[in-house]
Amino acid sequence: MQKIAIEQIPGRASLAPVRVGEISIDEAAIARETQYHPAESAGDARYKAARALVVRELLRQRAGQLGLAVEGESNIEVSIAALLERELEVPEPSEADCRRFHAAHAERFSEPTRLRVRHILLAAAPDDAEARDTGYRLGETLITQLSECPERFTEFAQRHSACPSKDKGGELGWLAPGQTVPELDRALQHLATGLHARPLASRYGWHLVSLDAREEGRALPYDAVAERVRHSLREQATRRALRHYLLALEDDIGIQGFRLDEQADGSLMQ
Protein backbone atom coordinates (compact mmCIF):
# COMPACT_ATOMS: atom_id res chain seq x y z
CA MET A 1 0.00 0.00 0.00
CA GLN A 2 1.33 3.45 -0.90
CA LYS A 3 1.97 5.69 2.10
CA ILE A 4 0.80 9.30 2.05
CA ALA A 5 2.75 11.95 3.95
CA ILE A 6 0.74 13.70 6.67
CA GLU A 7 1.22 17.10 5.07
CA GLN A 8 -0.50 15.84 1.92
CA ILE A 9 -3.71 14.85 3.70
CA PRO A 10 -6.26 17.58 2.86
CA GLY A 11 -7.90 17.61 6.29
CA ARG A 12 -4.58 18.36 7.93
CA ALA A 13 -2.95 20.78 5.52
CA SER A 14 -6.00 22.73 4.35
CA LEU A 15 -8.51 23.81 6.98
CA ALA A 16 -12.07 24.97 6.38
CA PRO A 17 -13.07 28.51 7.47
CA VAL A 18 -12.97 28.59 11.26
CA ARG A 19 -15.59 30.06 13.61
CA VAL A 20 -15.74 29.99 17.40
CA GLY A 21 -19.26 30.88 18.46
CA GLU A 22 -20.06 33.96 16.38
CA ILE A 23 -16.43 34.96 15.88
CA SER A 24 -14.49 34.13 12.70
CA ILE A 25 -10.77 33.39 12.69
CA ASP A 26 -9.52 34.46 9.29
CA GLU A 27 -6.59 33.24 7.21
CA ALA A 28 -4.52 36.34 7.98
CA ALA A 29 -4.73 35.72 11.72
CA ILE A 30 -3.73 32.08 11.27
CA ALA A 31 -0.83 33.08 9.02
CA ARG A 32 0.45 35.56 11.62
CA GLU A 33 0.22 32.93 14.37
CA THR A 34 2.00 30.24 12.35
CA GLN A 35 5.46 31.68 13.04
CA TYR A 36 5.09 30.68 16.71
CA HIS A 37 4.38 27.02 15.92
CA PRO A 38 7.35 25.37 14.17
CA ALA A 39 6.53 21.99 12.64
CA GLU A 40 7.81 19.50 10.09
CA SER A 41 5.51 20.87 7.39
CA ALA A 42 3.70 24.10 6.58
CA GLY A 43 0.38 22.28 6.89
CA ASP A 44 1.14 21.09 10.41
CA ALA A 45 2.36 24.54 11.46
CA ARG A 46 -0.86 26.11 10.16
CA TYR A 47 -2.93 23.47 11.97
CA LYS A 48 -1.17 24.16 15.27
CA ALA A 49 -1.62 27.90 14.79
CA ALA A 50 -5.35 27.51 14.13
CA ARG A 51 -5.69 25.29 17.18
CA ALA A 52 -3.95 27.84 19.40
CA LEU A 53 -6.24 30.64 18.14
CA VAL A 54 -9.36 28.49 18.61
CA VAL A 55 -8.36 27.68 22.20
CA ARG A 56 -7.63 31.32 22.95
CA GLU A 57 -10.95 32.44 21.50
CA LEU A 58 -12.89 29.80 23.44
CA LEU A 59 -11.33 31.02 26.67
CA ARG A 60 -11.81 34.69 25.79
CA GLN A 61 -15.51 34.15 25.17
CA ARG A 62 -15.96 32.15 28.37
CA ALA A 63 -14.18 34.89 30.33
CA GLY A 64 -16.61 37.38 28.81
CA GLN A 65 -19.59 35.25 29.85
CA LEU A 66 -18.36 35.37 33.45
CA GLY A 67 -17.56 39.08 33.44
CA LEU A 68 -13.81 38.44 33.64
CA ALA A 69 -12.88 40.09 30.33
CA VAL A 70 -10.39 42.95 30.51
CA GLU A 71 -10.48 45.53 27.71
CA GLY A 72 -7.57 45.56 25.27
CA GLU A 73 -5.85 42.91 23.20
CA SER A 74 -2.81 42.89 25.49
CA ASN A 75 -5.02 42.00 28.47
CA ILE A 76 -6.50 38.80 27.05
CA GLU A 77 -3.88 36.75 28.88
CA VAL A 78 -4.94 38.41 32.15
CA SER A 79 -8.55 37.43 31.50
CA ILE A 80 -7.59 33.85 30.64
CA ALA A 81 -5.45 33.53 33.78
CA ALA A 82 -8.33 34.77 35.93
CA LEU A 83 -10.73 32.38 34.18
CA LEU A 84 -8.56 29.31 34.70
CA GLU A 85 -7.88 30.27 38.30
CA ARG A 86 -11.63 30.36 38.87
CA GLU A 87 -12.86 27.40 36.85
CA LEU A 88 -10.05 24.89 36.43
CA GLU A 89 -10.06 22.25 39.14
CA VAL A 90 -6.74 20.43 39.44
CA PRO A 91 -6.54 17.83 42.22
CA GLU A 92 -3.39 17.94 44.32
CA PRO A 93 -1.51 14.60 44.20
CA SER A 94 -1.42 12.75 47.49
CA GLU A 95 1.77 11.54 49.14
CA ALA A 96 0.78 7.96 48.28
CA ASP A 97 0.26 8.93 44.62
CA CYS A 98 3.70 10.54 44.52
CA ARG A 99 5.44 7.54 46.05
CA ARG A 100 3.72 5.14 43.65
CA PHE A 101 4.66 7.31 40.67
CA HIS A 102 8.29 7.47 41.80
CA ALA A 103 8.44 3.69 42.25
CA ALA A 104 7.00 3.12 38.76
CA HIS A 105 9.21 5.72 37.02
CA ALA A 106 12.42 5.73 39.04
CA GLU A 107 14.51 6.22 35.89
CA ARG A 108 12.93 9.65 35.34
CA PHE A 109 14.27 10.82 38.67
CA SER A 110 17.76 9.39 38.48
CA GLU A 111 21.08 11.15 38.19
CA PRO A 112 22.14 10.84 34.53
CA THR A 113 25.24 9.00 33.39
CA ARG A 114 28.08 11.50 32.91
CA LEU A 115 30.90 11.19 30.41
CA ARG A 116 34.24 12.99 30.43
CA VAL A 117 35.02 13.69 26.78
CA ARG A 118 37.73 15.18 24.61
CA HIS A 119 37.18 15.69 20.91
CA ILE A 120 38.69 17.10 17.73
CA LEU A 121 36.19 18.56 15.27
CA LEU A 122 37.12 18.32 11.60
CA ALA A 123 34.60 20.75 10.14
CA ALA A 124 32.61 19.85 7.01
CA ALA A 125 29.14 20.99 5.96
CA PRO A 126 26.51 18.23 5.51
CA ASP A 127 26.11 19.00 1.79
CA ASP A 128 29.84 19.29 1.02
CA ALA A 129 30.68 15.73 -0.06
CA GLU A 130 34.29 16.53 -0.93
CA ALA A 131 35.00 18.21 2.42
CA ARG A 132 33.37 15.36 4.33
CA ASP A 133 35.40 12.78 2.44
CA THR A 134 38.62 14.72 3.02
CA GLY A 135 37.75 15.20 6.69
CA TYR A 136 37.01 11.52 7.22
CA ARG A 137 40.32 10.44 5.68
CA LEU A 138 42.21 12.99 7.80
CA GLY A 139 40.35 11.70 10.85
CA GLU A 140 41.42 8.13 10.15
CA THR A 141 45.03 9.26 9.81
CA LEU A 142 44.95 11.19 13.08
CA ILE A 143 43.32 8.29 14.94
CA THR A 144 46.04 5.94 13.74
CA GLN A 145 48.70 8.34 15.02
CA LEU A 146 46.87 8.86 18.32
CA SER A 147 46.62 5.10 18.83
CA GLU A 148 50.41 5.04 18.78
CA CYS A 149 50.98 8.32 20.66
CA PRO A 150 47.91 9.22 22.80
CA GLU A 151 49.78 12.13 24.38
CA ARG A 152 49.51 14.05 21.08
CA PHE A 153 45.73 14.57 21.46
CA THR A 154 46.18 18.11 22.80
CA GLU A 155 48.59 18.97 19.99
CA PHE A 156 46.23 17.62 17.32
CA ALA A 157 43.23 19.42 18.84
CA GLN A 158 45.08 22.74 18.76
CA ARG A 159 46.23 22.18 15.17
CA HIS A 160 43.13 20.68 13.55
CA SER A 161 39.97 21.20 15.63
CA ALA A 162 37.33 23.73 14.52
CA CYS A 163 35.75 23.70 18.00
CA PRO A 164 36.57 26.43 20.58
CA SER A 165 37.52 23.57 22.91
CA LYS A 166 40.77 23.29 20.95
CA ASP A 167 42.23 25.92 23.29
CA LYS A 168 41.76 23.41 26.11
CA GLY A 169 43.20 20.52 24.16
CA GLY A 170 39.76 19.38 23.01
CA GLU A 171 38.38 19.07 26.56
CA LEU A 172 34.57 19.15 26.74
CA GLY A 173 34.53 18.26 30.42
CA TRP A 174 31.79 16.16 32.00
CA LEU A 175 28.76 15.80 29.72
CA ALA A 176 25.28 14.62 30.64
CA PRO A 177 22.79 13.48 27.97
CA GLY A 178 21.52 16.38 25.87
CA GLN A 179 24.54 18.65 26.34
CA THR A 180 25.99 18.23 22.87
CA VAL A 181 24.67 17.99 19.30
CA PRO A 182 22.05 15.18 19.16
CA GLU A 183 23.78 12.84 16.71
CA LEU A 184 27.03 12.95 18.70
CA ASP A 185 25.13 12.72 21.98
CA ARG A 186 23.49 9.45 20.89
CA ALA A 187 26.80 7.96 19.79
CA LEU A 188 28.57 8.87 23.03
CA GLN A 189 26.14 6.86 25.14
CA HIS A 190 27.35 3.61 23.54
CA LEU A 191 31.11 4.17 23.51
CA ALA A 192 33.67 2.29 25.57
CA THR A 193 36.26 4.35 27.42
CA GLY A 194 39.36 5.32 25.47
CA LEU A 195 39.97 6.64 21.96
CA HIS A 196 37.17 5.68 19.59
CA ALA A 197 38.45 3.78 16.55
CA ARG A 198 36.76 5.86 13.85
CA PRO A 199 35.50 9.42 13.26
CA LEU A 200 31.93 10.11 14.37
CA ALA A 201 29.65 12.14 12.11
CA SER A 202 27.54 15.16 13.03
CA ARG A 203 26.02 18.06 11.11
CA TYR A 204 29.24 19.98 11.81
CA GLY A 205 31.66 17.43 10.39
CA TRP A 206 33.69 14.59 11.94
CA HIS A 207 34.54 14.16 15.61
CA LEU A 208 37.59 12.28 16.89
CA VAL A 209 36.50 11.29 20.37
CA SER A 210 38.33 10.15 23.48
CA LEU A 211 35.99 9.02 26.25
CA ASP A 212 38.22 9.45 29.29
CA ALA A 213 35.83 8.47 32.09
CA ARG A 214 32.26 7.39 32.73
CA GLU A 215 30.15 7.91 35.84
CA GLU A 216 27.05 5.73 35.71
CA GLY A 217 23.75 7.30 36.72
CA ARG A 218 22.06 6.20 39.90
CA ALA A 219 18.51 6.15 41.13
CA LEU A 220 17.71 8.85 43.68
CA PRO A 221 15.60 8.10 46.75
CA TYR A 222 12.10 9.51 46.89
CA ASP A 223 12.91 12.05 49.61
CA ALA A 224 15.58 13.62 47.38
CA VAL A 225 13.19 14.19 44.46
CA ALA A 226 9.80 14.46 46.16
CA GLU A 227 9.13 17.97 44.84
CA ARG A 228 10.04 16.97 41.27
CA VAL A 229 7.70 13.98 41.50
CA ARG A 230 4.88 16.15 42.86
CA HIS A 231 5.46 18.71 40.07
CA SER A 232 5.28 15.96 37.40
CA LEU A 233 1.99 14.62 38.75
CA ARG A 234 0.56 18.12 39.13
CA GLU A 235 1.47 18.89 35.50
CA GLN A 236 -0.20 15.69 34.30
CA ALA A 237 -3.33 16.51 36.27
CA THR A 238 -3.36 20.06 34.89
CA ARG A 239 -3.13 18.75 31.32
CA ARG A 240 -6.04 16.38 31.87
CA ALA A 241 -8.15 19.09 33.49
CA LEU A 242 -7.39 21.56 30.68
CA ARG A 243 -8.23 19.03 28.00
CA HIS A 244 -11.59 18.17 29.55
CA TYR A 245 -12.37 21.83 30.18
CA LEU A 246 -11.62 22.86 26.59
CA LEU A 247 -13.65 20.01 25.13
CA ALA A 248 -16.58 21.06 27.33
CA LEU A 249 -16.24 24.66 26.06
CA GLU A 250 -16.15 23.35 22.50
CA ASP A 251 -19.52 21.67 23.06
CA ASP A 252 -20.99 24.70 24.83
CA ILE A 253 -19.78 27.57 22.62
CA GLY A 254 -19.46 25.69 19.34
CA ILE A 255 -16.68 25.52 16.77
CA GLN A 256 -17.09 25.33 13.00
CA GLY A 257 -14.35 24.26 10.60
CA PHE A 258 -12.13 22.77 13.30
CA ARG A 259 -12.13 20.05 15.95
CA LEU A 260 -9.97 20.17 19.04
CA ASP A 261 -7.66 17.18 19.39
CA GLU A 262 -5.74 15.41 22.15
CA GLN A 263 -3.14 18.20 22.19
CA ALA A 264 -5.70 20.94 22.80
CA ASP A 265 -4.02 21.81 26.10
CA GLY A 266 -0.54 22.18 24.58
CA SER A 267 -0.56 25.89 23.76
CA LEU A 268 -1.54 26.72 27.33
CA MET A 269 0.95 24.39 29.01
CA GLN A 270 3.98 25.76 27.15
UniProtKB/TrEMBL annotation:
<dbReference type="InterPro" id="IPR050245">
    <property type="entry name" value="PrsA_foldase"/>
</dbReference>
<dbReference type="InterPro" id="IPR046357">
    <property type="entry name" value="PPIase_dom_sf"/>
</dbReference>
<keyword id="KW-0413">Isomerase</keyword>
<dbReference type="InterPro" id="IPR027304">
    <property type="entry name" value="Trigger_fact/SurA_dom_sf"/>
</dbReference>
<keyword id="KW-0697">Rotamase</keyword>
<dbReference type="InterPro" id="IPR000297">
    <property type="entry name" value="PPIase_PpiC"/>
</dbReference>
<dbReference type="GO" id="GO:0003755">
    <property type="term" value="F:peptidyl-prolyl cis-trans isomerase activity"/>
</dbReference>
<comment type="similarity">
    <text>Belongs to the PpiC/parvulin rotamase family.</text>
</comment>
<feature type="domain" description="PpiC">
    <location>
        <begin position="112"/>
        <end position="213"/>
    </location>
</feature>
<dbReference type="Pfam" id="PF00639">
    <property type="entry name" value="Rotamase"/>
</dbReference>
<protein>
    <recommendedName>
        <fullName>peptidylprolyl isomerase</fullName>
        <ecNumber>5.2.1.8</ecNumber>
    </recommendedName>
</protein>
